[in-house]
Amino acid sequence: MAPRRLQVAVAGLGRMGARHALNILNKTPRAEIVAAFSPDKNELQWGKQHLEPYGITLYDDYKKMLEHKGLEAVVISTATSVHAEESLQAIEKDLHVLCEKPLSTNVQICQNVVDAAAKKPHLKVMCGFSRRFDDSYQDVARKIEQGAIGRPTVVRSQTCDKQHPDPDFFVQYAAWSGGVFVDMSVHDIDLTLWYFGSSIVPKSISANGVVAILPGLKQHKDYDNAVGIVEFWDGRIAHYYASRMMTHGQEDVTEIIGTNGKLTVNLNPQKNLVNHYSKAGITREVPADYWGRFEPGFVKEANEFTAACLDNTPVPLEFQNAVKAVQIGAWLQEALVSGKQIRFDESGKRIDRANL
Amino acid sequence: MAPRRLQVAVAGLGRMGARHALNILNKTPRAEIVAAFSPDKNELQWGKQHLEPYGITLYDDYKKMLEHKGLEAVVISTATSVHAEESLQAIEKDLHVLCEKPLSTNVQICQNVVDAAAKKPHLKVMCGFSRRFDDSYQDVARKIEQGAIGRPTVVRSQTCDKQHPDPDFFVQYAAWSGGVFVDMSVHDIDLTLWYFGSSIVPKSISANGVVAILPGLKQHKDYDNAVGIVEFWDGRIAHYYASRMMTHGQEDVTEIIGTNGKLTVNLNPQKNLVNHYSKAGITREVPADYWGRFEPGFVKEANEFTAACLDNTPVPLEFQNAVKAVQIGAWLQEALVSGKQIRFDESGKRIDRANL
Amino acid sequence: MAPRRLQVAVAGLGRMGARHALNILNKTPRAEIVAAFSPDKNELQWGKQHLEPYGITLYDDYKKMLEHKGLEAVVISTATSVHAEESLQAIEKDLHVLCEKPLSTNVQICQNVVDAAAKKPHLKVMCGFSRRFDDSYQDVARKIEQGAIGRPTVVRSQTCDKQHPDPDFFVQYAAWSGGVFVDMSVHDIDLTLWYFGSSIVPKSISANGVVAILPGLKQHKDYDNAVGIVEFWDGRIAHYYASRMMTHGQEDVTEIIGTNGKLTVNLNPQKNLVNHYSKAGITREVPADYWGRFEPGFVKEANEFTAACLDNTPVPLEFQNAVKAVQIGAWLQEALVSGKQIRFDESGKRIDRANL
Amino acid sequence: MAPRRLQVAVAGLGRMGARHALNILNKTPRAEIVAAFSPDKNELQWGKQHLEPYGITLYDDYKKMLEHKGLEAVVISTATSVHAEESLQAIEKDLHVLCEKPLSTNVQICQNVVDAAAKKPHLKVMCGFSRRFDDSYQDVARKIEQGAIGRPTVVRSQTCDKQHPDPDFFVQYAAWSGGVFVDMSVHDIDLTLWYFGSSIVPKSISANGVVAILPGLKQHKDYDNAVGIVEFWDGRIAHYYASRMMTHGQEDVTEIIGTNGKLTVNLNPQKNLVNHYSKAGITREVPADYWGRFEPGFVKEANEFTAACLDNTPVPLEFQNAVKAVQIGAWLQEALVSGKQIRFDESGKRIDRANL
């Protein structure tokens, strides 16, 4: 008899949801996708074509999908605005949850989900930070653990997107994304929590940004380029750069500088192993988007989440981190928009407001 | 109803066979592995653990496996010495065949299989050259097609293995591998046929080798380092380097130099995107073996072979090439062992023997 | 008759002064070093051995050296604390001046020198920022000029020194260096003025630092790692990283991100063109210090300064920039030490003090 | 009193001669250029402008120049055809000689010069192989000496020139250059002698070439792309690639593969440290010619030759090597043109002719 497979449903069949659904269908041997939900007709149409033939039941009602017989776990990749509510409902139904980041752009709402999950420790609840499942970032974690660079002291990390051919794309996106630091840098912040330890306490947060190519962002108080610094109380610093202005492709780079060495990830982005020598010189192409860079990480994420559910082992990243990363992202975004530094005492209590 | 999946059996469950079996089980959505064969008890034991639970029937008799009900295709990854015979038997049974390279180290035997396949054009018969399914090599083919480098004129290609911790490993391997040019450079030769065109006719072949670290190779007339040149009648040249002496890892590099540009593949090998900065300088690791470099290619190979069978489309590489690549490899090996150049007339007829 | 050579004296024969003296002696064809000064006996001893044999007169009194017959120009590379006074005295004597950076760690004193020079427009007075004479940085300037990246919008630039074997070295240095931003990042700031234009007006300045490996720095209110952001009123941002903690060598990196492309300098530092492949992987070495990276720039600097003096052409960098770079460096240092953001109005007038 | 400077004359003021003259004038502190010779009016005109003003005497008669009072050394960079004769005359006059490579394209004539020099051991006579003075190649020699790669076993080395805008340029050059292996690969051969040891004895030599873009080469029995293998009796192999077809620039690459590691030089050519990120991807430029790659080597060569003459120390490369490198180049060229392998016995005596 074939080993039992985790019975999974996918909520949301947009760009990312469809990718999750196909990953579980085709590249997650220990999981079986049995149901999928979307509130959107076009997405359901896609599901009819690509999922229904495999016996996957489609729903246009999330709650009904949660009632699907035998269902054990839900992968949530609907709009960010409903991530938290749908997670809460799944937890309520005693289902494991893998939710796309962020749980919410609102920190308190994130915390509510974490609190709900904490009450059901038998459930595996995880927020999907794909870089945690990337070979290179995992190698860095291993090397740091082995002492390869001494004490990690400074993180420089950037998430830089290719300019979108449609100038409205990122502007519309900014209406609900929570801003560049919450939407993009949250990955860099999560890496910082990974490499510095999740107990680090911010001491001060500063940020600046410009609107260089997408004037429409101003209406949403967002920026197409932003830099920020987070200083921590234990003598460490992280600085971030987020941009939607790259012409060459996606360029997510991380450096971890320790007291006795340094590790870099993706300092020299490349689409594949080809170089083209021509009159222009020597040229290599770069992945156009995060999928071109992180696709294998998403597959690994689905597999590791499945294993944690089936084997009742811990999920690979603390759920609480998902709140902390959004919280720091939100503070950076606040510092960015207000132009004012935010400060904290050693317990992590914010103290700048009192000063002003 | 779920789309029909190709019913596949895998012959051989050694290192490579096990990988093929798992690829088809887990990473080839349109195929279903239904049976597996091995003459080896340990391999069958592995099958009992990893395949039988999924309803896959195990056989210790290849012919019986071919009788498996509903079987449509066989993936052959047994010892090279039986590749050809097993391929012929599968073709005889009207089964599609994906056979690991080489079909045989004997050119005539290779040709026999190709001839048998040619008589059954409804069958998909393919010899697995994994680089044909590698993103980077495919990108090179596309760029050449688009004229990015003018006329491809010189190929430099190398297959270099990491030194094996067990000095006997490669020596024992050499007993039946056909020699470095047949075993290793056959990949580089296949790439040459791809990029220069499969109709190219050799004009002369020269080769030299040394035994630098594995004296045991001498008893099998093999070498741990070998270089060879193949000159073609249409004004092109390929030169190859094969080595089993690398300390840093696997290093398979290809350059294609055209009249108006150059393309390189994997000139800077890397295990992942991490660099370590230390007192020694800046260091990156390198894949330890071909699996670390080409794993995604093997997955793509299984999927594309499956698609060709199900959709009745041409297999992605001409079967005849498999003979031609082995033939050129065997000539290089002969030139290597004899120390004498081999020559051909414009029709491809060998002329050096007559001269001597 | 051989063309006239500029009659030059060098003040200061310490590490950098000796290099300047030898550059002028051996690698600056249109200049002739005729005199040198040092207040230090050891340095004079070095001069006796390396300069006197070539007919160069040594002085232990700076003012007397200025009286050297026929003297036309002075290269000043004494201690930073006397740069300004010695520059003023040379200007007073109607001599061209090439002064090592910084003119002073005090902005007003810098300005005094610039003012004095402005009154004698026939004199060439230049503050030596060696990167201005580096092939790569000059190539970037040319490419920006040609529109290769659209409007330069974000500069990321770092000056990172190798850990000194003597832990006291940088601590003693910090006593008078003005702090990491004035001493190290001043180069990155000067590059920013070059690529953004020297008329840019800061809007806000923030900085943070840690003392990770050199606790002695605390007594001088300095840091071994510091990051800072300068936001400019015309919608541009620069962010800097200065460190004395590298284990691998000197790593000065600059990125200029434009609205339509990006340029990087030295993202992959290397000592030479050698890579070593070993069990550790693939390793390249890195220059140990700024001399290993910028030596050819210093030679070009001496030659271009000489040409400007002899041909009465403008010096290659505006002297006023030297003040502005130190000013921004000093503000960054102030923000670093105080932990408070500094703000400016559109005219460049500082406004944060009034607010607090 | 200033230390004595070597009194040097330069013969030939063409492209390379002019560079030598300026190097000695401006960048070789211990040498003084006192005379220069050219048989060419244009070259002499250049000398009038750039050398005469510095008191350098110009000659249109080589022999008269040799009589220049106080002359100690000659740098010969006239046409290859007169290198040997002019070297002999200078040796005859008891002058040190630095002669551009090759001494001659004729091996016997090379040997004559070496023999003449051997009779005057007080003279420093050197053939200029610029790579011997390149930092990276010197670093490789040092690392090999230190055992960094075990026993050097395989050399792969290429000299690849950029396509010349004038298609006739290389064709005319081929009339007297001795062919690609003598003209270009002689550098790679010299490196082989350096890293393998100058006592290595060839066992067999094979070569092939194509005329891909410069049909005019055929009249001179030359090729625009050529590959060759030299097998040595002590179990080592060198293989070479020479090309005049690069579009991207000069690309001289060397790999030395040892039994315990590998060293590469210039595997990733670059003009400077700039990378340009654009829609095309990430691009770096490449030096256009050997001067862009090796200029600092030529300066070091002039300085080290000068030091050897003044200090009576050995010149940095054995003069006999210059013959051996040309000899191997000539054999490769013969194998290339004839299409036949050349063979030698263990004493180095050629045995293939006897066999045929």
UniProtKB/TrEMBL annotation, chains A, B, C, D:
GO biological process: NADPH regeneration
GO molecular function ontology, one term from the record: nucleotide binding
Domain GFO/IDH/MocA-like oxidoreductase: 137-263
Residue stretches making up the Gfo/Idh/MocA-like oxidoreductase N-terminal domain: 7-126
SUPFAM superfamilies xref list: Glyceraldehyde-3-phosphate dehydrogenase-like, C-terminal domain, NAD(P)-binding Rossmann-fold domains
One GO CC annotation: cytoplasm
Domain of life: Eukaryota
InterPro entries: Gfo/Idh/MocA-like_OxRdtase_N (IPR000683), GFO_IDH_MocA-like_dom (IPR055170), NAD(P)-bd_dom_sf (IPR036291)
Parts of the chain that traverse the membrane: none
PANTHER family per UniProt: BINDING ROSSMANN FOLD OXIDOREDUCTASE, PUTATIVE (AFU_ORTHOLOGUE AFUA_6G09900)-RELATED (PTHR42840:SF11), NAD(P)-BINDING ROSSMANN-FOLD SUPERFAMILY PROTEIN-RELATED (PTHR42840)
Family: Belongs to the Gfo/Idh/MocA family.
Protein name: NAD(P)-binding protein
Organism of this sequence: Ophiobolus disseminans
